[in-house]
Hints:
Blueprint: H1 2-5, H2 10-13, H3 21-49, H4 57-72, H5 81-98, H6 100-109, H7 113-134, H8 143-164, H9 167-197, H10 203-236
Helix pairs in contact: 3-5, 3-6, 3-9, 3-10, 4-5, 5-10, 6-10, 7-9, 7-10, 8-9, 9-10
Amino acid sequence: xxxxDRNINFNALVKFSHISQSTQQHLKRVYSSFAIxxxxxSAGAYVNVVLRxxxxxxxxxxxxxxxxxxxxxTPHSPENEKKRLAILAGFAFFSGVGLGPxxxxxxxxxxxxxxxxxxxxxxxxxxxxxxALYARRRSxxxxxxxxxxxxxxxxxxxxxxMFFGSVLLFKMHMYxxxxxxxxxxxxxTQLIIEKAEHGDKDYVWHCVDLFLDFITIFRKLMIILAMxxxxxxxxxx
Length: 237
């Protein structure tokens, strides 16, 4: 058949002709910082789960919020680059520590949930990121308003469920929240591209956006898998 004789141009798969060279270099810095954040977050999760350090989730929340605020109010400049990278590392560490309760839940139910959730999150993040990178510029930016509205509704439903304690509402919150965060990967990736094209080269803060998307998807996926595993165990009894 003719289609079997066609040569596939793999070089074309990694070319983003609609993105300028300077923005492509900026994205390399963003994703390099993102990879380092993932390693540091893994270290934070390790010291929480294995070494039993900073078991209180409240401390990790205060730490991550404090680091984020510090980073936000530290201007982006060549003089502050090393300082901001150090703050980013601290933010990633506390974010990893904050995953402790969800990780402990998964370990109690079935430890294999953790690598499954991580691989699933990596696949989701990669697919949606590539979709945003290959798509026409600004094609997903229209999602911003809808995603923020959905996030607000999820927050209100979560607060309401603190009084109702509905398992069904909690499950809906998890599944819809996962879908919303997938949308945020598309939106944030294209927003980073647009900001970079207009001169905003703050790769440290742009890394924070993507890192938060990944961590949130990972947490939600872990909880969903843990809930499903619990239900399966109940059915077997």
